[in-house]
Design a protein that fits this description.
This protein is of the alpha+beta class and 127 residues long. The protein is 20% helix and 27% strand. The strands form 2 sheets. A 6-stranded antiparallel β-sheet has the order 6-7-4-1-5-8, with helices on both faces. A hairpin with a 4-residue loop joins strand 2 and strand 3.
Length: 127
């Protein structure tokens, strides 16, 4: 099993989870779930890949940056099955940072793809 000190591969494995913080603004109160807007961002939907970290480590990492209303996760395969891209984009502050893009030509997910990704996601915080 890889260790956190290992070099993280560029390719995000299909079985990896991608974690996304959900703000109050992007919470669908009526249906008690994230709105599809959670996955729409003109700069790419920022997510953290798990890269074999446990769920609690991933959630706590996101909550250390911002007090999110919720955290959801979606499998990279489900993103790809929604005809979107899961791209590894590490930053200086976060070696797990990744993004979900619509396609190689378009960054922000279409409404249809954002809904598909949202529908495949699961809420992991609060649990």
């Amino acid at each position: 099993m890889p260790k956190n000190t290992d070099i993280i591969p560029e390719e995000i494995a299909d079985d990896e989870f991608l974690y996304r913080g959900v703000t109050t603004f992007n919470w669908d109160e009526e249906n008690n779930r994230p709105s599809s807007a959670t996955f729409k961002d003109s700069l790419g939907a920022s997510v953290d890949r798990d890269y074999n970290r446990d769920k609690d480590s991933c959630v706590n990492s996101l909550l250390s940056v911002k007090n999110f209303k919720a955290v959801c996760r979606v499998k990279a395969k489900d993103v790809r099955d929604s005809d979107a891209l899961a791209l590894y984009k590490p930053s200086i502050r976060n070696k797990y940072h990744s993004e979900i893009h619509d396609s190689a030509e378009r960054i922000e997910l279409s409404s249809k793809k954002a809904k598909r990704v949202r529908d495949k996601s699961e809420i992991v915080y609060p649990d």
